[in-house]
């Protein structure tokens, strides 16, 4: 029985962001995030659903990913990643999608292709800030890939034991 889904609310037109999305340069460093029972840290998860809807307060479009944790701890628990779409967040959305191996030329293609993300196993990093009451979930990459094996988003350092032709 498959409970996964992908859906887009009617009337959401992402084509107004196409030009800015194509020019967006995904940020390399991570950001910070509210408290709940799932401890901060890296997890493997499966994408159970991708929903494109609007925020209740501003009406901006947003992407919601429902993720089911596979391990190493908190197995079976669910977390949600939310990305509100504005001109300022397009680069972050593009980074999210690229880390999930979804490369779009136009953001307006996302509603038709969002279902492709369902059932992908991903590596995530969950970070909470209880004082500010927010939680952020970062996609590190697909599970089992080199990108998915990176550390926390705050540590974008050189990989250990990398063979390079460095002059020292």
What report would you give on this structure?
- The chain is mostly beta strands and 168 residues long.
- It has a single domain (5-27, 34-146), classed as Beta Barrel (OB fold (Dihydrolipoamide Acetyltransferase, E2P)).
- It contains 3 helices and 6 strands.
- Strands 1, 2, 3, 4, 5 and 6 form a 6-stranded mixed sheet that branches.
- Strand 3 (61-71) and strand 4 form a beta hairpin.
- It starts with a strand and ends in a 26-residue tail after the last strand.
Compact description:
The chain is mainly beta. The protein has helices at residues 18-23, 90-99, 110-113; strands spanning 5-8, 41-54, 61-71, 78-84, 121-129, 134-142. It contains three helices and six strands.
One letter per element, helices H and strands E, the order comes to: EHEEEHHEE
- Annotation field: number of helices: 3
CATH arch. level architecture: Beta Barrel
- In the CATH hierarchy, what is the class? Mainly Beta
Spatial separation of the terminal alpha carbons: 57 Å
CA-based gyration radius: 17 Å
Q: Work out the helicity level.
A: 10-25%
Determine the CATH topology.
OB fold (Dihydrolipoamide Acetyltransferase, E2P)
Low-confidence stretches: 30-36, 147-168
Taking the sheet with the most strands, its summary is: 6 strands, mixed
Name the overall outline. globular
- Count the domains: 1
Structural class: mainly beta
**Roughly what fraction of the amino acids lie in strands?**
25-35%
Q: Care to count the β-strands?
A: 6
Overall average pLDDT: 82
Key phrases:
168 residues, mainly beta, OB fold (Dihydrolipoamide Acetyltransferase, E2P), 6-stranded mixed sheet, 32% strand, globular, disordered C terminus
């Amino acid at each position: 029985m498959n409970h996964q889904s992908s859906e887009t609310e009617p009337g959401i037109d992402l084509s107004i962001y196409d030009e800015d999305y194509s020019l967006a340069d995904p940020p390399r460093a991570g950001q910070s995030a509210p408290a709940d029972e799932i401890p901060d840290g890296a997890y493997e998860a499966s994408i159970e659903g991708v929903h494109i809807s609007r925020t209740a307060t501003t009406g901006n479009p947003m992407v919601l990913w429902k993720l089911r944790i596979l391990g190493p701890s908190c197995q079976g628990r669910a977390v949600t990643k939310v990305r509100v779409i504005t001109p300022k967040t397009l680069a972050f959305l593009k980074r999210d999608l690229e880390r999930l191996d979804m490369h779009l030329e136009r953001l307006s293609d996302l509603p038709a292709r969002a279902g492709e993300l369902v059932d992908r196993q991903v590596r995530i990093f969950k970070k909470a800030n209880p004082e500010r009451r927010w939680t952020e979930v970062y996609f590190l990459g697909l599970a089992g890939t080199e990108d998915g094996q990176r550390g926390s988003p705050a540590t974008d350092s050189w990989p250990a034991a990398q063979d390079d032709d460095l002059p020292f």
